[in-house]
Amino acid sequence: MKIMLVDDSRTIRNIQKNVLKQIGHTDLIEAEDGVVALGLFQKEVPDLMLVDWNMPNMDGITLIRKIRETNKTVPIIMCTTEAEKSRILEAIKAGVNNYIVKPFSVESLQEKIEQTMAKIGAA
Amino acid sequence: MDVRFINPFVKSICNTFETMCSLPVTVKKPEMKTDNGPTSDVSSIIGFSGDAAGSVALHFSFDTASQLATKFAGIDITPEHDDFADAIGELANMVAGGAKAQFQGVDVSISLPNVIVGLNHNLSASKSVPRIIIPCDTELGSFIVEIGMILTKQPAGNVAETAGALS
Fold first, then answer.
1. B165 - beta bridge partners?
2. pLDDT 10s digits, B107-137
3. What CATH code would you report for A3-116?
4. Of the N and C termini of chain A, which has fewer Cβ atoms inside 10 Å?
5. A104, B96: Cβ pair inside 8 Å?
6. Residue of chain A with shortest Cα separation from B81
């Protein structure tokens, strides 16, 4: 299972990678903004995406809207500091499948990833 | 400085460091910033725009910043490490995001973090917005949170509820 991590913070991507490796996922690709992520996505569609909201060049919500124009099925988890109800609703409307608010515990990140994978039958 | 913004920041500081670094934070009494201080070695700054404008800055010594970044990232991070600024910036990002989520009825956007690294620097900001400093202690060292925020637009919806949420 290929998982794409999209976050401008390498520290956050490393934390996410560690959690994913702990639960047996090692096929990981990284992007530091929406532009890079979209380019990678067009070459190879991942099985799951973790996407930050606030990033330079192209933010996460724009990236998700662009992806959903052509792909309605790839599971996307938004992982962001944007915690207001209005932002969460905006993300759901854009097509996210799950939502994690930063700061997050390792346990909650793991739980959301497993929850999302279970929904797509990949747990 | 609208003092109603202080509590959301205090809650967010405690939540961020407790959740990401397993570190309880003792928050001391906020005070007005004077022209003379504080100085620090590492500052991470996030700007706010929208219904409220201003910024929040986290100020650290090199030693405290290194220890907190190391605890946060789970790897040894010195000021020379490639991820040092990234880790410190992300902590400020979480503090800012967690605070803004509590500004009910006040729609605010946050900037990407900027990190300043330099021995004993002082952050100079507009004198039109008074700034509050919040001293914070952890077992890995002390740091200071500096906030300058003003409402630029009356909150939408239930103003009383908003004031209550911010007070």
1. none
2. 999 999 999 999 999 888 777 788 899 999 9
3. 3.40.50.2300
4. C
5. no
6. A11
Q: Is the pLDDT of residue B166 over 70?
A: no
CB contact under 8 A, B98 and A12: no
Going from N- to C-terminal start, the domains of chain A cover: 3-116
Separation between Cα atoms, residue A54 and residue B113, nearest integer Å: 10
Q: B17 to chain A: nearest residue by CA?
A: A103
Complex ipTM value: 0.91
Region label for B123, one of left (φ > 0), alpha (ψ between -120 and 50) or beta (otherwise): beta
Classify B3-30+37-162 by CATH class. alpha beta
pTM: 0.91
For A60, the 3-state DSSP assignment is helix
Q: What's the pLDDT tens digit per position in A17-37?
A: 999 998 889 999 999 999 999
Taking a C-beta distance cutoff of 8 angstroms, is the pair A53, A94 a contact? no
The answer to whether B38 and B64 are in contact (CB under 8 A) is no
pLDDT, tens digit (0-9, with 9 covering 90-100), for B3-60: 778 999 999 999 999 999 999 999 999 999 887 778 999 999 999 999 999 999 999 9
Tokens 């725009």 belong to residue: B49
CB-closest option in A10, A81, A86 to B93: A81
